[in-house]
Amino acid sequence: MVNTLSITFIANEAGRSGAVSHRELSRLTMFLLIGTLVWAYLSAVLDDMSLTIMWERWEGTIEHTLMAPVPRTVHLLGMSAFGVLHALVRTSMIMACALPFFHVQLAGADWPTAAAVVVMGSVGVVGLGILAGVLPLLYPERGEQMSFMVQALVLLVSGVYYRVDVLPGWLQAASRLSPATYLLRGIRDALISGRSISQEAGVIATLAFFGAVLVPASLATFAIAERWAKKTGRLKRQG
User: Fold this and answer.
1) Which one, of 79, 93, 54, 92, lies nearest residue 129 by Cα?
2) What is the total count of domains within the chain?
3) pTM as predicted
């Protein structure tokens, strides 16, 4: 909540100092507010996936969990479903608390398009979260910090607080590999510009592609990492 307010108040400061016109102030406020809210959602999903491994290791239950007669796909997708629901509730609460602080125009927002983008984008984010969860599994001492590094890279290249086109060319190329880039673009187009689902079909299709690639790839990667962790005895070690 504090992070959301701190970042979004930058728009008020820009308007007060004359850096942006009064007409542009509402758009800048919406741009930053959406960025902070989407990042709150993304970071919650990624945290729930990667920290679950750490929590189970600390509690000494990870061996029992991985030995349970449950298909690993069901296990990981169930954890992902909880992460998405938790992130949605958390982000909705932050949004409800933050909106009274700012004057934003939502009359022209296309909420069905924003919902479609969130649903489709969440699939790719789940795949990214499962991949991040592999790191604590393989590296008990530093895996958690490494998963935070993944989040930091996504934050840097995805245009959370600024447009991607302000980045150097090589980072702009890296931004095309992040599903968060397209998730942010689609939500901002829907809520700020009021673009419809048909107008955002390209973004939604790109998010669907990320989901179709990342989820199977992350499940396969986790299965390989799990076998290697069991073989090398890393599950018994406390991080």
Assistant:
1) 79
2) 1
3) 0.86
